[in-house]
Amino acid sequence: MDIATTPPTERRRIALAAVKELGPQRTEQAVLKVRCPASHTVAAVYKTSAGTVVVTASGPGGRGNRDREAVGHHGDKLDSQFVDTLEATQFEDDAIPGGCACGPRSLSRKKLQDAVATHAHVVNLT
Ligand SMILES: [Zn+2]
């Protein structure tokens, strides 16, 4: 995939499909996890066939909450989460929407890229 010429919506669709390919045990394969001060996982980063992909959970009251309840216990929650390649075009916002039980959070794409580049395994938010 050529990030520079792929529209963001198409890029996210490809990223979602690539994360699904990793299967239900993917959390064990995360190269980076982002945690809030209460140790909730706010985001996880995976290496996929579409490149490095970030998956963020959405906080309480965030978009997709109602959809999530409709998903069965064994269903995949990915469709209600924000999934995107970590790499994006220079024209896009640095902020990635995320959240946990503590509330919504905005993550910096650049910070996550730096963390992956330096082989950090965990980013703790303050
Ligand atoms: Zn939290």
Automatic annotation (TrEMBL):
It comes from the Bacteria. This is Uncharacterized protein. It comes from Rhodococcus chondri.
